[in-house]
Prior knowledge:
Strand 2 (32-37) and strand 3 (40-49) form a beta hairpin. Helix 2 packs antiparallel against helix 7 (162-180). The chain has helices at residues 20-26, 52-65, 81-88, 92-100, 123-132, 138-155, 162-180; strands at residues 2-11, 32-37, 40-49, 69-74, 78-79, 121-122. Strands 2-3-1-4 form a 4-stranded antiparallel sheet, with helices on one face. It has a two-stranded antiparallel ribbon with strand order 5-6. The protein is built from 7 helices and 6 strands, in the order βαββαββααβααα. The longest helix has 19 residues, at 162-180. By secondary structure, the chain is α+β, with helices and mostly antiparallel strands.
Amino acid sequence: MKTFEFSIVASGVDPTADDFGDGFYDAGCDDALVAFQKGRTIIDFAREAITIDEAIASAVENVCAAGAKIDRIEPDPLVNLSEIASRADLTRAAISNYAKGDRAKNFPAPVARVTSDTPLYDWAEVASWMALHKKVSAEVAISAGVIKEANIAIAAGETHLAKRLKKRAQDDAAALESAAA
């Protein structure tokens, strides 16, 4: 088993209730730190599982069992060049060169704040590109894709994510393998 770290941002529970933390613990979130920040409940997990998709799917079910409404999974799927550098353990200058096409071609285009000085990129797209160029592991790219898929499912009101996330992980692994061949 491996330990996967991620956060669930949730709402719909009373942080002043006497059993606020206990409710999450009793629902299976005994591997998480529960806090209330900026009007949201933040559940920081260090969950042991065989795969990231299993870790996230089980955590989502546990948080729902505690009575919370899940808003999203983090780490944030939108990243700027500095955050990309941090996540990939590369310099900001190197990432800037990739984004400009100076070091490699076809770096993913920004998806938000495109005309600003700090555009935002889809981490799942960037991580896949970086895995294909041997700058991050396939595991990093697969994790990014699973988190993105979880957020899409959550936005659609889904709470039972196991099959959907497993399929995304398998599809991403297959795509990386075929692109590398």
